[in-house]
Amino acid sequence: MNREWLTELERRALRAAQLADIESGLRPEQYAGWRYWPAECLESGMRALGALEGPMAGGPAMIAALYVETAGVYFDLPGVEPWDETRDARTYAGPWPVVAHPPCQRWGRYWHGGPSVRVRKIRGDDGGCFRAALSAVRLWGGVLEHPEASSAWKTFGLPVPTRGGGWIADLDGGWSCCVEQGHYGHRARKATWLYAFGVRALPSLEWGPSDGARLDEGFYSAEESRARRAAGQVPVERLSRAERLATPLPFRDLLLRIAGSVR
Questions:
Q1: Residue ranges of the alpha helices (H) in 30-114?
Q2: 9 in a domain, yes or no?
Q3: Which single residue of 11, 55, 234, 246 has CA 20 to 30 Å from 69?
């Protein structure tokens, strides 16, 4: 694994795991390999804490949902520990596998802030959220979600999936795919890229185009919008920001199942 992604989060996680290891009799020289085998680290840590007996056939006892909306769809679910903005998911130090929804504003089509912004933003300037989310997925196992064509994939060297579907492997043992949330209850097609790591088996998803419609006008500037409307183009219904960002319950459950299959 590329150790670049496992920085301070890795060190905090290993320190936390080592406290349990002292009681279980594991030797310090055994810790080093864990940074390359997050699933084994999770299982050993759970056994050391007495939280697991026998094989992990039923999956982990808990899943951490990172960068989620306060009081949103990941709250009040048994077996799910939600991390909203107030908890700062960048500080997550395990031991559970994760479903990660890091902020996407600085990685998408309008990373600079849009056509009317006065001060252009910086591409990828998300306060380290994506880097921390990727590190957590690779360290503890689970799945990360971002919009299709997120420039974070290129920045962090993740395999770019095809729009038609299917999982694509990287050299570190992770897998990427493109899936449309329209297959899972979203009003729009909402093409989404996933990156999974450390799972038992990759699910076959609903690949290809969904029935969801494009619900925005897709203009690049206010000038283009005015010109198109002057030419008689009828405005298309728009989604609210909350609707655009919403995670449909069937899609949430899909991501939880992927994270729940961590070895």
A1: 38-48
A2: no
A3: 11
Q: Specify the residue for token string 């990660």.
A: 100
Indicate the number of domains in the chain.
Answer: 1
Residue 72 lies in a domain: yes
* pTM, two decimal places: 0.69
Task: Classify residue 241: in a domain, yes or no.
Answer: yes
Cβ contacts of 228 within 8 Å, gap of 6 or more: 217, 219
What residues contact residue 263 under an 8 Å CB cut-off, 6+ apart?
39, 40, 43, 56, 141, 198, 199, 200
Whether 76 is in a domain gets the answer yes
From the list 145, 196, 192, 147, the residue with the least C-alpha distance to 165 is 192
Q: For 244-263, what is each residue's pLDDT tens digit?
A: 667 889 999 999 999 999 97
